[in-house]
Amino acid sequence: MKFRVFLTSLLFLTLLINAQEKLPYYEIPKMDEKYTAQNIVVRMIDGLGFRYYWATNGLRPEDLAYQPKGEGRNCQATINHLYDLSNMMLRLTKTAVNQEVEKSKMTFIAMRKQTLLNIEAVSKKVKVSENLAQFSVKNDGKVSIPFFNVINGPIADAIWHTGQVASFRRSSGNPINPKVNHFSGTVRE
To answer: Could you tell me the residue range of the domain that residue 177 belongs to?
Structure first.
């Protein structure tokens, strides 16, 4: 009887693990070595996605609660800010993505997933664009927010804060997987 319960539990666990949705940015997507403005920005966005994936992968409650001494956000508040930045990137690039859960009802897992999906959607939108200037925000026919500000604004800010999450988790005793290669955007097996 115990053996049957064990086998049933093992089967259930295997099915549960296999049923989990694969999230983007386990590795950086392959890309042609064609240096266009769009491809360069896409690579920056994909680099952000890869770093965010690994900075947030396997965070524990104590990691999410970690806050450096002094004033500032704790890790969870920083992740909330990263989610907001990903939504800003969606708005500024006019990219529509279904937000599955309202922000106030999101768990860490749901917010992580949605942030990764948002980053991926922005990357895909920029990749197929004909001209990055199409993402410049215009008011009364004049450019009020050039696309350069999207790069040095929410994209760069998200890269910065992803580094903070990586630092916070290291400080709370849960460093990033050492098999992650940020240079190549791959993971050693």
So the answer is: 2-187
